[in-house]
Write a structure and sequence with these properties.
Layout: H1 3-20, H2 26-48, E1 50-56, E2 59-65, H3 71-88, H4 96-102, E3 109-110, H5 113-128, H6 138-144, H7 156-162, E4 171-174, E5 179-182, H8 195-209, E6 215-219, E7 222-226, E8 235-240, E9 249-255, E10 258-264, E11 269-272, E12 275-278, E13 293-300, H9 303-316, H10 318-325, E14 332-337, E15 341-344, E16 350-352, E17 358-359
Parallel strand pairs: 15-17
Antiparallel strand pairs: 1-2, 2-6, 3-5, 4-5, 6-7, 7-10, 8-9, 9-16, 10-13, 11-12, 13-14, 14-15
Bound molecules: adenosine monophosphate and magnesium ion.
């Protein structure tokens, strides 16, 4: 049974009954009908667009459905997001990732097909970025405590000791067994740079399967704009001002159905002795990357890839990042630098709105 059709029909029937139960005089007939049309369309509009916001994947996840927003759809979406978190979070002891990490140097661990797929994709990006993107970055993230409440700058010796543990080549995948093995004790996977993208893609799948044509998915800055606006004008997505308060933007992207994902120094950081330490690490040096960039935004079709690419390109820096992007002709990018300059790749519809920044 098509539940939506049933619902619409029964609403109309009820409305008709309601109208029929009044007997109109010819004179006020017109105005009364107009009144009912107004009330009906007002409530239809209110029902049309609805949002749900929940904390998941260590961030604020919000989904807006611009039509047919029903609780049952939101329930489905958020239980899928929670399922992904339960599989891939390093902070959940029973997750696939924690089990893989707990068995580092000991034994391969069989995992859910979603986890397997995301790790496989992560290793692909590790390979093509020459290790700038490294899902085995876990020991560095833990050493700096960047995801916890008490981050601090570790000693240089500790960093040097940790570096050999950060190496994606020591992540062994077995397609037959669907298992993952970290060859050295102390190694640890961290899918923080790609899992939100995957969750956003899965959310988009659910929404499309429900036949919903227009939606916005925002999983902690991993954005997907689905379908097109009613008036066919492009979606507008702001680029966060890396030094500004949350929600303050430096400019606006105008895009069709696309995903927009940003990696930036402002997402997670701490300050010590006046210096700013952020969460995007150089796997070869062991320190937060310092290359003049404040943020990299990737605009493309698949959010998993955009998520991995935004981190990879940030860590690679502008020149190497641009050459990596050449292998992804569909992908576009916005770079924001420490000197307030902004660089955009060709074909992008980006309008700078903050006069303190300039396009170079
Ligand atoms: P994102 O915001 O998508 O760029 O992801 C940042 C998160 O990815 C960090 O909080 C770390 O958990 C993890 N991470 C940091 N540096 C790297 C790196 N070089 N490669 C892969 N993941 C990283
Ligand atoms: Mg990322």
């Amino acid at each position: 049974m098509d539940y939506r059709k049933e619902l619409t029909t029964s609403r109309i029937n009820r409305r008709e009954l309601f109208i029929r139960s009044f007997s109109f005089t010819r004179r006020n007939n017109f105005f009364v009908i107009l009144f009912f049309i107004f009330i009906f369309s007002f409530f239809s509009c209110a029902r049309d667009e609805s949002s749900r916001i929940e904390l998941a994947l260590g961030t604020v996840c919000s989904v807006t459905l611009y039509e047919n927003g029903k609780d049952i759809v939101f329930d489905k979406i958020f239980s899928r997001i929670n399922e992904i978190e339960n599989l891939m979070s390093v902070n959940i002891n029973s997750s696939d990732i924690s089990r893989i990490n707990g068995n580092a140097g000991l034994t391969p661990v069989q995992v859910h097909e979603d986890t397997y797929k995301v790790i496989k994709r992560a290793l692909y990006f590790a390979e093509i970025s020459n290790g700038a993107f490294d899902p085995a970055v876990g020991p560095l993230v833990a050493l700096w405590g960047i995801s916890g409440d008490n981050p601090s700058v570790p000693s240089h010796e500790k960093i040097i000791e940790t570096l050999p543990l950060v190496n994606w080549r020591n992540v062994i995948m077995d397609n037959q067994e669907q298992s993952v093995f970290l060859t050295r004790t102390g190694m640890a996977l961290d899918l923080g740079a790609i899992a939100k993208g995957f969750a956003a893609d899965e959310t988009a799948k659910i929404i499309k399967n429900e036949g919903i044509a227009r939606a916005k998915i925002d999983l902690g800055g991993n954005i997907i704009m689905l379908g097109e606006k009613k008036d066919k004008s492009p979606w507008r997505v702001g680029i966060q001002n890396p030094g500004g308060s949350r929600g303050s933007i430096i400019g606006i992207l105008r895009i069709p159905e696309k995903t927009v994902v940003t990696s930036g120094v402002y997402e997670r950081y701490f300050e010590e002795n006046g210096a700013h330490y952020h969460h995007l690490f150089s796997p070869s040096l062991g320190y937060p990357v310092q290359n003049g960039l404040l943020s990299v935004t990737i605009i493309t079709g698949v959010s998993t890839d955009a998520d991995a690419l935004s981190t990879a390109v940030f860590v690679l820096g502008y020149e190497k990042g641009i050459s990596l992007l050449e292998s992804f002709p569909e992908a576009q990018a916005v770079f924001v630098f420490e000197d307030n300059s902004v660089s955009v790749t060709g074909g992008i519809d980006f309008m700078l709105t903050d006069k303190l920044f300039y396009i170079k």
